Amino acid sequence: MYIGIDVGGTNLKAGLVDETGHILDTERTPLRFTTAEDFAGTLAGLAGTLLSRAGLRASDIVRAGIGIPGAVCGGDILYTCNIPLRDVPLERLFRAHLDIPVRMENDANCAAVGEWLCGAGRGTRNFMVVTLGTGVGGGFILDGRLYAGGGMVGEVGHMVVEQGGALCGCGRRGCWEAYASATGLIRMTYEAMEAHPESLLHAVAAERGGVEGRTAFDAAQRGDAAALELCHTYVVYLAAGVTNLVNILQPEAVAVGGGVAGAPEPLLMEPLRQIVERECYPRHTGKIPRILRAELGNDAGMIGAALLDRAI
Ligand SMILES: [Zn+2]
Questions:
Q1: How far is the CA of 237 from the centre of ligand 1 (A)?
Q2: How far apart are CA 211 and CA 217, in angstroms?
Q3: Which of 126, 211, 213, 238 shows the greatest Cβ crowding within 10 Å of its Cβ?
Q4: Do the beta carbons of residue 177 and residue 152 sit within 8 Å?
Q5: What is the spatial distance between Cα 306 and Cα 24, in angstroms, rounded to a whole number?
Q6: Over the stretch 130-167, which tens digit does the pLDDT of each residue have?
Q7: CA of 160 to the centre of ligand 1 (A)
Q8: Ligand 1 centroid vs 141 CA: distance in angstroms?
Q9: Which CATH class is domain 2-113+300-311?
Q10: What are the start and end residues of each CATH 3.30.420.40 domain in the chain?
Q11: Residue 137 CA, ligand 1 centroid: distance in Å
Q12: What is the assigned CATH class of domain 124-294?
């Protein structure tokens, strides 16, 4: 039996996971950060709750895997994006509360492992996950193993797709993330609304209390011309990055996850597949990767964290 812990920006979620990736029980709590010691105690507390509910002892757990939104090295957190954790020996702090072996990985890498073992990537040896959320995340399985690099690998969102383009949160201009993330889509939606006062985008946004990632797709489904054009522009940017990655890594399959991936198939996944098939380099040998929707949703990171041993 394994424990998988997903450290999100607002919530901490732990799951009791069996060796086949099935989640048997989950426990969660809001993230209220005070100190690294408290943080480790909270994570151990979640795992302890799962153990006691299942009538298990610490020795029944092979390992606890923890997905961290940042860079890790062994049992230490080097850096996190939204939580003030720098150079924290998390494994040591966690084991002071609950003595279970701990393995940590970047959260996007955990999601890639989860999708590879139990979701869209099952049966592949070379596989890639791209997550479209607030930012754009990525994780790679190469030759049947997670490519973990030096802790900051898979930052696919920060390759430039538009020289001199929109300013990215990382300080660079024209990053893929500034166009293909939900945040980028929302920015482009505001721009389209300004350029097209007649567009249904205005009514759709008003109905839902503001512009969201889905606004463009909702208006496009109702046949709005400006929204259809916006969705097309978005998919072209998305496909540019996916095609770049396919050309570098030639995976057998690419899974697209995150909130935006829930958009209607004809507006997102179908045109994405068409562009990648038409433009990717491996087409010259007829080896075009399958472009799939991720299958595990928000559970991918937790399942992948639990099963990290099988990918390393
Ligand atoms: Zn960037």
A1: 14
A2: 11
A3: 238
A4: no
A5: 12
A6: 999 989 999 999 999 999 877 777 889 999 999 999 99
A7: 8
A8: 23
A9: alpha beta
A10: 2-113+300-311, 124-294
A11: 11
A12: alpha beta
